Amino acid sequence: MGARPNYHETSYDTGKENGSPPGYPGAPGPARGNVYYVPQQGAGVYPNAHGEVYVDSQQGNQAQPPVDPERPNNFGSSFDNAVIRRRFVRNVYSILMLQLLVTLGFICLFIFSPEVKRFVQHNSWFYYLSYAAFLVTYITLVCCPGVRRHHPTNIIVLAIFTLAMSYMTATISSFHDTKIVLMAIGICAAVCLVVSFSAAFCKFDMTKWGWILSLVLLVLLLFGFITLMFAYIPGLRSPWYHGIYSGLIALVFMGFLAYDTQLILGGRKYQTSPEEHISGALQLYLDVVYIFLGILGLSGFSSN
């Protein structure tokens, strides 16, 4: 028996006609209908209005299976797509919850254990090693669809990425007061829930404006480089730069969280392919982590 076809081999890719934003495959099209066969020999294959195929082997004329008059056109296709999308959303958020639990565990270990806190603060090379692992795994998952879609390679690479990001996030948290970190976690959780539910039920389509978010992020990165330069110039160093930058980071990634949420839930102009559950979890995880880091930096600035 041949290999099982993937999603794109059994569906039309309507997103390619409208154009998809970089990094997100096109929207899935209607799935193929059922296939009915008459147990006789001959030729003649005809699709009906629902995409179902019925074979009339004797006459070669078009023949239709019995049609339920109450069933609308494309009912089967719509139902199949809805089931696929629900399964995809469930997979994405299950992976996301595991990632966030791992990160939360790292943070709690680093802020509540004095020995661990002292170790990570005096061994910065572990942080830079984690940063290198983060870059390599992130670029691999984003730029290599073969790795991203191949099980279990995608799970292994995503696990390494999550561990590296968790170590860096927990290391940054260890330099802040424990109460500030816990407050930032609570605020981040509340903000992410509000943004996610708002994006899910809001009629405004954020997927059309991904290019604006990318442009704002680029400007923000340039602002970050400028503030980094100011930190080394006598007389120009100011804690206000860090506070403003942290607040802007949190705001921009709230926008990305709404954008990625709508891409994953579907039903908008653009939507993530059901094969991209690793990519979906990756983007949501980064959104949440950067929102947390932005809130943490802003909270630390306010407390000082």
Automatic annotation (TrEMBL):
- Keyword line: Membrane, Transmembrane, Transmembrane helix
Record-annotated membrane-spanning stretches? 92-113, 125-143, 155-175, 181-202, 209-233, 239-259, 280-301
Basic and acidic residues biased stretches: 1-16
Which InterPro entries would you find in this protein's record? Bax_inhibitor_1-related
Q: Which domain of life is it from?
A: Eukaryota
How does the record classify its membrane topology?
Multi-pass membrane protein
Chain positions covered by the region annotation Disordered: 1-33
**Compartments reported by the entry:** Membrane
Recorded GO CC terms:
endoplasmic reticulum; Golgi apparatus; membrane
The GO biological-process annotations, alphabetized, read as: negative regulation of apoptotic signaling pathway
Q: Which PANTHER family match?
A: BAX INHIBITOR-RELATED (PTHR23291), PROTEIN LIFEGUARD 1-LIKE (PTHR23291:SF127)
Q: Which family does it belong to?
A: Belongs to the BI1 family.
This one is known as Uncharacterized protein
Species of origin reads: Ramazzottius varieornatus (Water bear)
Q: What lineage, starting at the top, does this entry show?
A: Eukaryota, Metazoa, Ecdysozoa, Tardigrada, Eutardigrada
